[in-house]
Every structure is written in structure tokens, then in C-alpha cells.
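Query structure, 480 C-alpha cells:
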């Protein structure tokens, strides 16, 4: 047995009938590089050979009686790959729109907690002979960094595949522990570390104090964007269980060109492109806020937390998105200042904040609060914590292959938080920025317009950078 850390458990307790805490991913593959051509059985054999490399694929969660302590991971003696790996064929013509519809419907259904918390579908019938691997994995078992590590176990550096060492080792699961044993071991866990709650309280108290100072700001110092200071928009209302997704791709080189021209970062460029797209998206629905939107931007803190065994080692910084500005370059310059201040103030939150809050809140109370928040429609009455979540995940810089098929694109989709019906994630992949947008269509329709707008926003910034360099060249000639 392995007990969940507080930071991981928080994603389990947060889940309810409309908040699904799984991460969805889409890998688009070109099977023309497969030695014997595409067959579903080849892909299935590939997964079978690598199950031992991904322990989470054969482990399930058990909740502790009365919520005495966090749930535990245990081997699933009833594990059956056919419960998790499926096959689907798109309706013709199999365009990106049909794939997006399938993925949105797929993401709308939570994972079954009585089984290992993952699922995968091989989608066939995509135009140009492509196939897609669409997957769900619960956030309790994966974050941005560990998700990339997990994907590394499924891919190869060439189309020639070889069975990894240990592929023939039989799976010998331990017996499922009884409820009395779970309760006793939870009590022992608590008793063996009686200061756990006090340490969490101390760190949380210090973090809250620092957070207050950062939010108020100091004279001539950075002022952090504050949670609950977001303007309400049409996509900041109570969620339903439905999800829709959209994809887009932009050249990474364009982002790097804009970055070097204006002295920003690639992430600044992406956030500015999101600001452009969101302004257009809001305007199309009759809304342009008179103040910036507020984005929650996850930040990896791997190696900087007290819970070194936690899968999720992530914190958040809050960034104002200048959707109130019309000029794309003005937006980029504003984002550069915002992220600079956000990074300077981010340390105030502390790497352990999520885990500490979870340790200080009994699991039953945490989950009850999440369910009541949704059922009572509090997202309609309280100020939004943030308008949306925007994540930037590093991906592979070299060509990769899955079961011999070349990996062309990877589109990631994070979970939605109650009251915020949009989540944007970008993953850098071999010279591209693969953009995934997931939404609750009952409050955030036409999500494909937003995804397209982000890619177009990067192109607009590239043209602005070319113009900026041309002006600098002309000025240089005039000086000489």
C-alpha cells in the first residue's frame, strides 16, 4: 500500500458530479512508419509490454473508513486491460471537427474509482490515414511533469520497437486490504507523525501572511494579482458535466522570434496571444470587460516541496491578462510586466500550500464542501477565483514514435474548476505549439473560435515583430 500525499489527495476530494479531475490527452499518430502497417493489435501489444513501467496503470485507490487519513494505492487483482483500452472509428470524413466532438464527449464522463484511474481509446478513421490515441488519467496520479514522464514510457526514439526489459515479468498483485486493516493503518499513520497537522498549519500561516503582503504590494515593488479579483464573464458560472474541446497548432519558432524581438519569454508570447483571442471571443459574445481577466497559471515546484513523494508538485501564480487593451504589442508588453511581478510575488504562496490546506481539512469535509459549492450554485453568487486556467507544458523536442507510428501532435486538456468554464493548455512538440482548449459548452460555447484565435494571435505578434525589426533596421541605416 502507498498512501496519497496531501497535494495528490486534494484533486480527489475536489471532484464531484460536475467537476471531473481527470487530465485528457490526444496523441495524433501517422501509422505510415509502422513496419507492418497499422493494426490495433500491434498497439495493444505495445501497451501490454509496457504496463510494468507504469505502476499507476495497475493500481487502484481505496478510501479509508471514516476518512481517518488519505486514501491508499493498492494493486488491483481484478485488473483487465480490456476495461481500459478501447477502439473507436470516427464517422466520415473523419476531420478534426469529428475528432474534437468525440474527445469532448469522452472527457464529459468521470473515471470509475473502483478501477485504476485511467482509460485509453485508439481512434481510427481520421482523414489522411491518421489515428489518435485519446486518454484520460486522474489528476491524483499525474501532473504536467509526471505526465510527460509517463508518456516517455510509451514512446520510442525510432519506429523500430523493442520489448523493454521486464515485459515478461508476471503481475502478482497483493491482496486487497480489509476495511479494518485500512482503518488501523490510517490510525498508525496519524500516530506515527502527530506533528503533521501542526507543520502544515505553521507553513500555511506563514504563507497566508506573505500572500497578504504580496497582494497589498510594497512601494516600488511587485504587486501580485489577487484571487477573487476577476471580472465575471459569461464563462464564469456554474459548470455542468458536459465538455467540449478544440485544437490548434502554431510554430514554436514564431514564438521564439517574437520573444527575442520584444525581450519577453515564450510563455509571455503565448499569454499575450491568449489575451488577443479572449478579447475577440468576449467581443463576439457581447462582452469586453473594462479591466483585465485573471488567469491561474500552474507552476511546477518539483523538488521544492516538503512532500517529496507527491505526484502533484505544483503551485499557482495569478496573472492579469490585458484583454482591456486592443493593440497586440501593448498586450505583450503588459503581460511581460505582469508575469515579472507574478514571478517575484509567487514565492509568497509557498510550494506546500495545496498540500497543507488538504492536511488541515478532513477529507469528508473537503469533499462535502466541493459538492455543496456546486449544488448550491455558489459560483453564481461569489466572485470568481479566476477567469480561467492557462498551462504551458514542456514537450518532446525530437521525433517520437508509438508502436512504430510517428507522433505528429499532442493536445493536452486539463480539468475545469467550478466557476471557470475554460482551460487552455499548450505543449511544445518538436517545433510546434500544440494548443488544447477545453470548456463547458453550456456556459462557454464556440470554443473552436478561441483555439483558432490563439494561433492567429501568435501570427499577429510575429508580423508585429517583423515590423519592429524592419523599423530598427531603417533607424540603423539612417544613423549610418
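Result returned for the query:
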Amino acid at each position: 500500500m502507498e498512501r496519497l500525499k496531501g497535494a495528490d489527495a486534494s484533486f480527489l476530494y475536489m471532484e464531484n458530479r460536475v467537476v471531473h479531475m481527470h487530465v485528457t490527452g490526444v496523441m495524433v499518430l501517422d501509422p505510415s512508419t509502422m513496419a507492418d502497417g497499422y493494426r490495433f493489435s500491434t498497439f495493444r501489444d505495445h501497451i501490454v509490454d509496457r504496463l510494468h513501467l507504469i505502476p499507476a496503470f495497475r493500481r487502484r485507490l481505496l478510501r479509508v473508513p471514516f476518512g481517518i487519513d488519505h486514501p491508499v494505492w493498492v494493486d488491483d487483482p481484478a485488473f483487465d486491460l480490456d476495461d481500459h483500452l478501447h477502439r473507436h472509428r470516427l464517422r466520415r470524413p473523419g476531420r478534426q471537427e469529428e475528432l474534437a466532438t468525440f474527445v469532448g464527449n469522452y472527457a464529459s464522463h468521470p473515471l470509475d474509482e473502483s478501477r485504476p484511474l485511467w482509460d485509453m481509446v485508439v481512434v481510427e478513421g481520421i482523414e489522411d490515414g491518421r489515428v489518435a490515441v485519446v486518454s484520460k488519467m486522474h489528476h491524483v496520479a499525474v501532473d504536467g511533469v509526471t505526465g510527460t514522464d509517463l508518456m516517455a514510457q510509451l514512446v520510442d526514439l525510432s519506429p523500430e520497437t523493442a520489448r523493454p526489459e521486464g515485459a515478461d515479468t508476471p503481475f502478482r498483485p497483493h491482496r486487497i486490504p480489509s476495511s479494518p486493516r485500512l482503518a488501523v493503518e490510517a490510525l498508525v499513520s496519524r500516530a506515527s507523525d502527530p506533528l503533521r497537522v501542526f507543520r502544515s498549519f505553521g507553513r500555511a500561516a506563514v504563507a497566508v501572511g506573505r500572500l497578504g503582503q504580496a497582494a497589498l504590494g510594497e512601494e516600488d515593488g511587485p504587486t501580485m494579482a489577487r484571487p477573487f479579483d476577476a471580472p465575471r464573464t459569461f464563462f464564469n458560472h456554474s459548470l455542468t458535466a458536459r465538455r467540449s474541446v478544440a485544437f490548434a497548432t502554431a510554430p514554436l519558432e514564431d514564438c521564439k522570434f517574437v520573444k527575442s524581438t520584444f525581450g519577453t519569454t515564450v510563455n509571455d508570447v503565448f499569454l499575450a496571444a491568449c489575451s488577443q483571442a479572449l478579447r475577440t471571443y468576449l467581443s463576439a459574445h457581447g462582452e469586453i470587460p473594462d479591466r483585465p481577466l485573471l488567469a491561474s497559471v500552474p507552476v511546477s515546484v518539483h523538488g521544492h516541496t516538503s512532500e517529496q513523494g507527491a505526484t502533484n508538485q505544483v503551485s499557482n501564480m495569478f496573472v492579469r491578462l490585458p484583454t482591456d487593451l486592443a493593440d497586440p504589442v501593448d498586450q505583450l508588453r503588459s503581460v511581460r510586466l505582469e508575469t515579472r511581478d507574478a514571478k517575484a510575488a509567487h514565492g509568497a504562496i509557498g510550494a506546500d500550500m495545496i498540500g497543507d490546506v488538504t492536511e488541515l481539512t478532513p477529507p469528508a469535509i473537503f469533499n462535502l464542501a466541493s459538492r455543496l459549492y456546486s449544488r448550491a450554485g455558489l459560483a453564481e453568487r461569489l466572485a470568481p477565483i479566476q477567469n480561467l486556467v492557462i498551462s504551458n507544458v514542456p514537450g518532446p523536442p525530437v521525433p517520437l514514435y508509438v508502436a512504430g507510428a510517428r507522433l505528429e501532435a499532442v493536445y493536452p486538456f486539463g480539468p475545469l474548476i467550478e466557476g471557470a468554464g475554460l482551460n487552455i493548455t499548450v505543449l511544445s512538440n518538436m517545433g510546434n505549439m500544440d494548443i488544447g482548449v477545453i470548456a463547458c459548452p453550456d456556459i462557454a460555447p464556440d470554443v473552436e473560435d478561441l483555439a483558432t484565435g490563439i494561433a492567429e494571435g501568435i501570427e499577429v505578434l510575429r508580423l508585429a515583430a517583423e515590423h519592429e525589426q524592419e523599423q530598427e533596421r531603417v533607424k540603423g541605416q539612417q544613423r549610418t
